[in-house]
Design goal:
The chain has 242 residues and is an alpha/beta fold. The chain has a single domain (5-241), classed as P-loop containing nucleotide triphosphate hydrolases (Rossmann fold), CATH 3.40.50. 37% of the residues lie in helices and 24% in strands. Helix 3 (97-104) runs parallel beside helix 6 (141-152) and helix 6 runs parallel beside helix 7 (171-186). It is globular, with a radius of gyration of 18 Å.
Length: 242
C-alpha cells in the first residue's frame, strides 16, 4: 500500500534560530493511527508544524499523495485535505459551539451542505449538541478538546494531525479523547498524533514513531514499539502497556 504522506529528511526550526528538526523522516499509511513519541525537546510538535506549513523547510520535503507540500501556506495545505489541531485547540472562545463548528467549514461554498454536516457531527457527539448554544469558553477542557477534534471532521479531511490531545486532562477524560480518535479512524480519517502519554498513544495507534534530537530513531508497528525493551527504558519509563 502506497504511503499517503511522506516526510523526507526534513530540517526546520523557528526563525533564524538553530534547527530543531535535523533530518526527520516518517511514513504515514492511509487509514492508520500513527503516534509520535519522544522526550521533551525532540521536535515532535515542530514536525507537525513543518508538515502543515507553519514552519519553512530548510531542507528535505513533505510529500502528500505524490505531490510536494514544500512552500505551501497552512490554508493551502488544509485545502488539500490535512487538518491540524494544535495544543491550544484554537477555538473561538466567545463564539458558540455551533458557530465554532461552522468556522470549521468556512471555506465551503454550499452552506446548506455545511449545516447538514454540522448536524451530523452534533448527532455523533451528543455533548456538542447539548451545548450548541453556549460559548466555547464555558466548556470543560475535555469538551473543548472534543469540539476542536470534531470541528476537523466538517471538511472530511484525509489526515488529521493532533498535537498533545490529552495534555492537561484528567485520566478519565483522556480515555474519552482517545475514543474520539477511534471514531475519527472509523470514519476513514488517517491520524497523526503527538502524545506525551506515550503508553496511551501507542495503545490506540497502529504505527509508532520515535523521535529524538530532531531525528527519527525508529518507526514500526505500535505493538513492536511498545514491546521493544530499549524503547521502554528510554521513552516509556521502563513500563509495559497494561
Amino acid at each position: 500500500m502506497a504511503n499517503l504522506l511522506e516526510v523526507r529528511d526534513v530540517v526546520a526550526g523557528y526563525g533564524n534560530g538553530p534547527a530543531i528538526l535535523n533530518g526527520a523522516s516518517l511514513s504515514v499509511q492511509p487509514g492508520k493511527v500513527h503516534c509520535i513519541i519522544g522526550p521533551n525537546g525532540a521536535g515532535k510538535s515542530t514536525l507537525l508544524k513543518a508538515i502543515v506549513g507553519m514552519l519553512r523547510l530548510r531542507e528535505g520535503d513533505v510529500v502528500f499523495k505524490g505531490n510536494s507540500l514544500k512552500g505551501l501556506r497552512p490554508d493551502q495545505v488544509l485545502r488539500r485535505g490535512i487538518c491540524f489541531v494544535p495544543q491550544e485547540r484554537a477555538l473561538f472562545p466567545k463564539m458558540t459551539v455551533r458557530e465554532n463548528l461552522r468556522m470549521g467549514g468556512f471555506s465551503m461554498a454550499d452552506k446548506a451542505a455545511l449545516e447538514n454536516r454540522i448536524d451530523m457531527i452534533e448527532e455523533r457527539f451528543s455533548i456538542l449538541k447539548e451545548r450548541r448554544d453556549l460559548p466555547a469558553e464555558t466548556l470543560s477542557g475535555g469538551q473543548q478538546q472534543t469540539l476542536a477534534m470534531a470541528r476537523t471532521m466538517i471538511l472530511k479531511p484525509e489526515i488529521v494531525m493532533l498535537d498533545e490531545p490529552s495534555l492537561g486532562l484528567a485520566p478519565k477524560i483522556v480515555r474519552e479523547v482517545f475514543k474520539i480518535v477511534q471514531i475519527m479512524s472509523e470514519e476513514g480519517i488517517t491520524i497523526l498524533l503527538v502524545e506525551q502519554n506515550a503508553l496511551m498513544g501507542l495503545k490506540y495507534a497502529n504505527w509508532g514513531v520515535v523521535l529524538d534530537l530532531g531525528r527519527t530513531l525508529f518507526e514500526g508497528p505500535a505493538d513492536k514499539v511498545l514491546g521493544d525493551p530499549r524503547i521502554q527504558e528510554l521513552y516509556l519509563g521502563g513500563r509495559r502497556a497494561a
